[in-house]
Amino acid sequence: MPLTRAPLVDPFGRDISYLRISVTDRCDFRCVYCMSEDMAFLPKRDLLTLEEIDRVATAFVSRGTRKLRITGGEPLVRREIMNLFRSLSRHLTSGALDELTLTTNGSQLSRYAQELADCGVRRVNVSLDTLDPEKFRKITRWGDLSKVLAGIEAARTAGLRVKINAVALKGVNEDEIEGLMQWAHGLGMDLTLIEVMPLGEIEPARLDQFLPLSVVRARLMDRYTLVDDPYRTGGPARYVKVAETGGLVGFITPMTHNFCESCNRVRLTCTGTLYMCLGQEDAADLRAPIRASADDALLYRAMEEAISRKPKGHDFVIDRRRPRAAVGRHMSVTGG
Ligand code: SAM
Asked: Where on this chain does S-adenosyl-L-methionine bind (predicted)?
């Protein structure tokens, strides 16, 4: 029977056009809201090889995926990761893919920025929650701010558009958001703010970290003119233009506003598990079908079956009655 190459559409009529791939669960930082200090990592033998990741990504591209985001863990600490970028770039050249991009903590960008640009990467998201070196060290436990700033500079020099992602943390960086915005916009970079989500068990209490972006937005509006902007990257952020700086601020509000209605995304972990929703436990194994046969028929069937189970949305709650994580896995597993 010929393989059907129809685009993947979920039961709610949403086209699945965006695949996020976590290429490793390892990271050279231990951000306090993301990981516990003594994380147990997966044995290397459980990981998909880079060739297997390419195969799954390519299957998604042939079924309508237009955007690939490489993430982790820290994607740039996976060995030989540039081989994956190089091979996936053929889908940009062929026109099958609109965008190949990554989310990184920036620590390795100085080394890889030019190569990423050469592979057709045009934009990178760099996660950075503070510009204060001491605070940076406290949040990341292990990170060095100067390396990240050098990485951002290298990316800009290589011609990559950089967007800064910052998680809004109560009592930690809430007094710095305006400063981060001024800095980012001054360098022509947009800033996206993210609400902390209850993913995985960590040492600090989530309720202590959670800062609703409605509060941040109201504070910015006291001092700036925020104008709703139609700009979209295909992701969950909603943007405003700041009249005084000319830059954009994005808000990702999984907690205070459910962003599921237009969800076009699925997430592949480094072991080949496909999560149809960031905030639900249901998943599909794609590693078994690719290892069972060199032909993609089984893989396509597993992908179709998975998408037919994509849930309508998630329901995160952080309050005193529900102190535990909404889902057990950390963001570093599913891929942020
Ligand atoms: N290492 C890369 C980085 O730092 O961007 C990619 C992976 S990281 C898990 C992706 C993003 O998820 C980062 O911006 C991080 O701040 C964010 N993140 C991690 N845990 C989170 C949580 N519990 N709630 C909200 N954002 C989280």
From this structure: 33, 73, 127, 197
